[in-house]
Amino acid sequence: MRTVNLIVIHCSATKCNRRFTVNDLENCHNARFHNKGVGYHYYIERDGQVFQTRSEDEVGMHARHYNAHSIGICYEGGLNENGLPADTRTPAQKQTLRALLRSLKYDYPNAKIIGHRDLPWVAKDCPCFDAREEYRDLQPLALEQ
After folding, report:
1. Beta strand pairing status for 70-75 and 6-11?
2. How far is Cα 141 from Cα 128, in angstroms, rounded to an integer?
């Protein structure tokens, strides 16, 4: 098992009124990454269904310079009907994402949960909500000095 110290949350940056299924994601990433598969480890569709799209033991392709020690999760959406960044997660996606994060924290208790936008040099709104704040209760406890 590889060392994982980050769980990075992404959005697919697709409009909330248009579907972008796991099959669409696979086609998009295979074209982008020369048939190396989906870059994220998990994908959550609007109905809350979660798909494991890459083994956790395999390094992802979702956060340049951070892939070796991270798990990538992506949810379908992230743009409003006009194509502007927005937290478009459905209640089902929110529920599934929290359950998935709890499960991952069991395996990787010291991993910090962040949004893609929280990484240095990232100039995107992805995942279009404050992941650190929303999942503060799941973050590792700071070591006392």
Report:
1. parallel
2. 25
Tens of pLDDT, residue by residue over 10-43, are: 999 999 999 999 998 988 888 887 788 888 999 9
Please state whether beta strands 6-11 and 112-115 pair in parallel, antiparallel, or not at all (unpaired). parallel
Q: How far apart are CA 132 and CA 118, in angstroms?
A: 9
State how far the alpha carbon of 144 is from the alpha carbons of 4, 112, 139, in Å: 22, 17, 15
pTM of the model: 0.92
- The residues annotated with a catalytic role in the active site are 10, 40, 116, 124, 126
What's the rounded Cα separation, in Å, for the pair 97 and 41? 13
C-alpha 120/C-alpha 143 separation (Å) is 23
Give the span between the Cα atoms of 115 and 82, in whole angstroms: 22
- H helices present in the chain, as ranges: 22-32, 91-107, 131-134
* Token duo for residue 20: 């972008």
